[in-house]
Amino acid sequence: MDETMDESIEPTEGIGTAGATVAGKAPSGAGEEDGAPPDVGALFVPLGGFEPGEERLVDERDAACCERLHERYRERCRDRGPGEATGERFAEVCADWLAWLDADGFDPFDCEADKLCALAVLMTDSLAARDAFIMTLVASPDAHDAADFVGFAVHPHAPGNAARMERELNAAFAKPQRPDVERILRGVEICERAAQIVPDGFAAHPLAVASYGMWWVGDARALETAAHAIMLDEGMRLAGIILTALLRGVVPQWLGRRP
After folding, report:
1. Residue from 98, 30, 33 nearest 258 by CA
2. pLDDT above 50 (res 218)
3. Superkingdom of the source (predicted)?
4. Are 167 and 88 in contact (CB under 8 A)?
């Protein structure tokens, strides 16, 4: 991917610094009150979903769709700036994403290929949008509309949006109550399905988001999925953060209180 596009829109205080780490330091995770990190191996169990090593079959039509979307985004960034370019796409893609998360009888194989391509490309082209999709999974369950997250995606550097993201993410991380695991796992499956059908250049970010969701709910596949994302993109910082959190025993508080 074009590095200049990522650098121009990457949030300085986003998912990577507000959840798994705060100002570069790992917060106390579940079971760390006595100074010893928790036994992550005991907290994480394999949950249902795709296997990280499953074969990926990329249709040339989906590959072409991804390239068209990516080129269109680059043109919009040049003509109107990254904020407007992201805003132009985020509302529609996020609306589809939220509809999948809340659908009755959800099946990731029912997700339309063109919409999965749009999701994967947007996560790749805009790190702020990628972080906003993560917020739809782990932040307050009262926010279920694309408009609730557009600020994170379009204006990530605005002081109010940056502070709100950090506040909400840290609150969710420290919350002892069980999150909506089923909904988070739906998001994981959507990202895994998207990564299956798009070219390598657009698969790493969906896999990193999937690994984040897995880490949040204690899915043992988080490690392998994060490693897969890094194999596709060695500069994938989000997946690196998940690997570091797992190695340090940093997990959301609720996992240490799970029966």
Report:
1. 30
2. yes
3. Bacteria
4. no
